[in-house]
From TrEMBL:
Domain HTH lysR-type: residue ranges: 1-58
Name of the protein in its database record: LysR family transcriptional regulator
InterPro entries with a match to the protein in the record: LysR_HTH_N, LysR_subst-bd, WH-like_DNA-bd_sf, WH_DNA-bd_sf
Originating species: Thalassospira povalilytica
The keyword Transcription belongs to this UniProt entry's keyword annotation: yes
Family of the protein in this entry: Belongs to the LysR transcriptional regulatory family.
Pfam families hit by this protein: HTH_1 (PF00126), LysR_substrate (PF03466)
Length: 301
């Protein structure tokens, strides 16, 4: 029993004669007859009654046709899905990312990707760097988007996308808002809004100020950069922040200024140590295609 025999049987049952089945399959009548004979032998029961060189389907054939039709439809679905996967039009991607990138970078990339790949399903989880790395190592997600500050994890493959540099967020009427670049010594005495202790960026910022040799006054701590930036917007304090935060604030209320000494890191794609699927490679291409716009906005350098 083979696929061609199944197709000949279905054609015969659909069109009612060997002649019409041959026309539908674009093959000769003798070929159809041979395929039907072979198929009947392989199933082990009579499919046709034969009178004056004409075939008539038996009741068993009528019953069996429904099963054959389901099998053919299933095979066509396999073919369709195979073509869709080969053309990067079918599959799924599970993404874990730090909240700042979910709120800014990813939403635009996903929207554009879905226009080109409407049948690819995507799930997004916002989590801290530690949670993202855990999800990758335990295969709970396929791709991660985050920063590379002091990252050391042998189980995760890191593909840098672009470099970012910390900025100082402050209200537009702040005394330092007129500066293009701000040395951290100018920030003495300011109220700071900071990420919670344990964040890789917070750890790096703490280290820079320890080197500077003076403590900063922390007014509020928040878990996400969205929270921090919104508090700056409300004049609670200033913040040393990821530059992507500038995409979340009202630019009529908050400005972002370059900070020295520079605090830099890579925005990167994190994966398990394996080859990316075709659809994942396509998503990576969309991530990279978005970078020029992010450079124009000052989020990456």
């Amino acid at each position: 029993m083979n696929l061609r025999e199944l197709e000949s049987f279905n054609a015969f049952m659909t069109y009612g004669s060997v002649t019409k089945a041959a026309q539908a399959m674009n093959i000769s009548q003798p070929m159809v007859s041979r395929l039907l004979n072979n198929f009947e032998k392989s199933v082990g029961f009579e499919l046709f009654s034969r009178k004056r060189n004409q075939l008539t389907a038996t009741s068993e054939a009528q019953q069996f046709h429904a099963t054959v039709l389901r099998s053919l439809n299933a095979f066509r679905e396999v073919e369709t899905q195979a073509r869709a996967i080969a053309n990067e039009q079918l599959g799924s991607i599970r993404i874990a990312a730090q909240p700042i990138y979910v709120d800014t970078y990813l939403i635009d990339v996903v929207a554009k990707f879905k226009q080109a790949h409407p049948n690819v399903s995507i799930s997004i989880t916002d989590t801290g760097l530690e949670g993202m790395l855990d999800m990758i190592s335990t295969r709970q997600c396929d791709l991660g988007i985050g920063i590379t500050l002091d990252l050391q994890d042998p189980n995760v493959l890191v593909t840098p996308l672009a470099q970012s540099r910390a900025v100082c967020l402050m209200p537009v009427d702040h005394r330092l808002a007129g500066f293009e670049t701000i040395d951290i010594d100018l920030l003495r005495g300011e109220n700071f809004v900071e990420l919670s202790i344990g964040s890789p960026l917070r750890t790096k910022i703490d280290y820079i100020f320890q080197i500077a040799g003076w403590p900063r006054k922390i007014a509020v701590e928040g878990r996400t950069i969205r929270t921090v930036s919104r508090l700056v917007e409300r004049n609670v304090g200033i913040a040393v922040s990821d530059p992507f935060a500038a995409l979340l604030v009202d630019n009529s209320k908050v400005v972002a200024r370059t900070l020295t000494p520079a605090i830099e890191w890579d925005v990167a794609l994190f994966t398990a140590s394996r080859e990316l699927s075709a659809v994942e490679k396509s998503f990576l291409a969309f991530l990279r295609a978005e970078l020029p716009r992010l450079r124009e906005s000052g989020c990456v350098i």
